[in-house]
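As described in the Methods, two query proteins were run sequentially through the folding procedure within a single session, without resetting any intermediate state between them. The first query and its resulting structure tokens are shown here.
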Amino acid sequence: MDPFFYNTIEQPAIAEFKDRGSKFLAYSFPVQNIDTCKKQLTLLKKEHPKAVHHCLAYRIGIDGSTFRVSDDGEPAGSAGRPILGQIDSKQLTNIMVVVVRYFGGTLLGVPGLINAYKTVTSLALQLSPIVQKPVEITYKLCFDYQKMNEVMMIVKYYNCSVVEQIAQLFVELKIGIPKHRLEEVLNKMADLQGVTFSTDLIA
């Protein structure tokens, strides 16, 4: 994987695939954490209460180290793994795909199931524009309010993201700095008088 960039999606998508009466609906979502995955799954179960299976796979984190697959009652390895396989084939992270299945009365067998879950996931991912995002390192800045414009000019110029902002007598700003521009940004911040910064490893 690229140490400076990662691929993900920004927009949810839905795709449909039918095989011998069974209907498979794949929902792809951008996600940042496991809680979001749980909420999305709960919503889909409410939306499709009569579906026989709600199978899923997700991969989360810049290094993609957090992942899960669920066959939700389908034969082991016939649903979750094929879904994750499609996510990984596009080298995506911070993404979840849930496939809702309505049973059509005919058993598809394990090869048929693998094909169905793989195909519908692939269709959903084709409908989700893939975006490349920079890997960011979080820093906390502290400065006098008068420095706000100068700091924000640097933040905007280098496409840093603002994670959190607390403005009192002093401003505390938590920003995500693109890893490939880290040295430049820190040098610029160091040039500003009265601006202190530290890395925030907890974020």
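Immediately afterward, the second query was submitted; its sequence and tokens are:
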Amino acid sequence: MHKGETMRVVVVGCEYTGVTTLINGIYEWGKDRGIDHHLDDHFTIPDAYHLSLEEQTAMLEMLPAIKERFQWFQIVYHVCLLHRFEHILMGGFHIEEMVYGPKYYYPGINIDVREYEPEMPDDTILVHLTANADAVRARMESDPHPHQLVPSADVTEILERFEAEIRHSWTKHKLKIDTSDLTPEILLDTFLEKSKPHLNKRDLLTRLG
């Protein structure tokens, strides 16, 4: 019964708000129910979790215009994957690119990947993770990421930019979770509960079954 559920989820938010934590949690939750999600969480430059140190360095050293073109290719390709897989999880994706691209990867180059949103499946759920700035900075100190992208001084600005991009997103199904005081387990449970209104009848019955 659980294998009948469709789960297309794009999770976005400022670095250290729990994006990777949530999509990994959903992935494991799905495995326990016989659902094999396709998972892509490599839109932040460099992809520090799937590339070698040499490859990460090469990505960082790419010229800004090349980074911009590479990211466009990624977005277009993964829009296709949203249609190919019924069960797919993406971390960051196009909303992250709108925030991080012009700020950190290719300053001065204006982009608008939102034009691809109408091409995404109608049942795609856009999950916005946020947190207060103090919580984000505390996580930066306690569990630093390899190749941290967002400096502490930029946290408030980046949180506001994600808020604005989500507000202007054309995606039909959107939900927001403040992770400031949430453990990974509570974060997953919160998503599962908040996503219910965005499921069609078949998927809701599957989730409850």
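The first helix runs from residue 19 to 31. We note this only descriptively and draw no conclusion about the first query from it.
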